[in-house]
Design goal:
Blueprint (H helix, E strand, L loop, with lengths): L26 H9 L14 H5 L4 E3 L2 H10 L5 E3 H4 L17 H23 L1
Parallel strand pairs: 1-2
Length: 126
C-alpha cells in the first residue's frame, strides 16, 4: 500500500505488546496474506520495546489497551488507535486481534486493517 501510494519514504514495522520474539505468522495469517498476494512467510513476531518506540514517528494500535500500554512505556509517544487516526478521526473503535481465531476472524481483521490503512495513506499522502 505504501509503494502504491508513491511513498517509499515511509517504513512500516510491526511489534506486539504481548508478542514473543521470533514466532512465525500463524497458518491463518499466512493464508490470508496469500489471498491478498502478500507473502508473510518470513515475518517473525517481536515484542514492543522502548527502543522501537523511540525510533518511531507514529505508532498505531488496534485497541485502547494497546495505546495505554505504549503510553506507560513512553508517555510522549505519538500513539493513536488506527481507527481514530485513519479513516474515522475521533472514532475509538477497536479492531479485534485475530490471534487464536478461525480463518474468518483473520479475514475480517485483514479487511478492517486494509480499509483503515487505506484511509491513513490518503491522509498522509495529501
Amino acid at each position: 500500500m505504501v509503494s502504491d501510494a508513491g511513498r517509499p519514504d515511509i517504513e512500516v514495522e510491526s511489534a506486539g505488546v504481548q508478542a514473543s520474539s521470533g514466532s512465525p505468522a500463524s497458518d491463518e495469517a499466512l493464508l490470508v496474506g496469500l489471498e491478498r498476494n502478500l507473502d508473510i512467510s518470513a515475518h517473525r513476531s517481536r515484542p514492543l520495546t522502548p527502543e522501537i518506540l523511540d525510533q518511531s514517528d507514529l505508532i498505531l494500535a488496534m485497541s485502547a489497551s494497546q495505546v495505554s500500554h505504549v503510553k506507560r512505556m513512553r508517555p510522549h509517544a505519538n500513539v493513536h488507535l488506527v481507527t481514530a487516526f485513519a479513516s474515522m478521526p475521533g472514532e475509538s473503535r477497536t479492531i479485534q486481534d485475530p490471534f487464536g481465531g478461525d480463518l474468518s476472524v483473520y479475514r475480517r481483521t485483514a479487511d478492517e486493517l486494509e480499509h483503515e490503512l487505506s484511509g491513513l495513506l490518503t491522509r498522509i499522502v495529501i
